[in-house]
Amino acid sequence: MDTKNPKCVQCRTMRCGTTDKDVPVPVSCPTEAYADLISETTEKYHRPENKAVIQGWHTLMTKILDPKNPREKLSWTRVDQIMEYAKIRGMKRLGIATCYALLFESKLLSDILEANGFEVLSVSCLCGEVNPQDAGIEGNIFCNPILQAEVLNRERTDLNIMVGLCIGHDILFLRHCTGETTPLIVKDRALGHNPVAALYMSQNNFYKERFIRDDR
């Protein structure tokens, strides 16, 4: 398969964020390199399942990015956005796929959602109490993201929220979950589950040596 090696993060032109389409762009620009995919992917937004999502997003953004109140966007937490998106879409039955270690945080989330009129179902990663050896791995306990997904599939939740699933477990959950899913917490034990902090701290000398090594 022919690849074009898109590198948007290296772009200094950033034409896509302007209305001036005559500005030259790097050869790595996917808008130019994958022009054949533009109409093909644009057409997919007209599919009912995709149209419902993008219209829900658009309605939400018109509330958050209110030109008459530019500071409004600063008041919308991720929890606020999830609830408002669900309301816009008419979603009532919400599922929480949580890590066992974040049951406290998931309980707080569940309480907030229920206080706002949602029906909330939650499934811990340790559900099923499967013997790890039965799944072909070592250990004493077994996280079961596939079962989490299938339980929520069976429950026919309208929207699922991932809370702190481990890397790999989140991949399996998304692979097997048929319902719409959005993340709330991404596990990062070192940084209080705030992984973007590692990116910011990579700019100071202490963390720069950790992430960007000279022996590459």
How would you characterize this protein structure?
It contains nine helices and four strands; from the N terminus they run ααααβαβαβαβαα. The protein has 216 residues and is of the alpha/beta class. Among the domains are: 48-90, no CATH class; 92-185, Rossmann fold (3-Layer(aba) Sandwich), CATH 3.40.50. Strands 2-1-3-4 form a four-stranded parallel β-sheet, sandwiched between helices. The radius of gyration is 21 Å and the shape is globular. The model has no long low-confidence stretch (mean pLDDT 94).
Which structural class should the secondary elements be placed in?
alpha/beta
Helix content: 40-55%
Query: What is the CATH architecture descriptor of the domain at 92-185?
Result: 3-Layer(aba) Sandwich
Strand content: 5-15%
Shape: globular
List keywords for this structure.
216 residues, alpha/beta, Rossmann fold, four-stranded parallel beta sheet, 40% helix, globular
Outline of the structure:
With 216 residues, the chain is of the alpha/beta class.
Task: Chart the SSEs and their pairings.
Blueprint (H helix, E strand, L loop, with lengths): L29 H4 L1 H10 L3 H17 L13 H11 L4 E6 L4 H13 L3 E6 L20 H11 L3 E5 L5 H8 L3 E6 L10 H6 L3 H7 L5
Helix pairs in contact: 3-4, 6-7
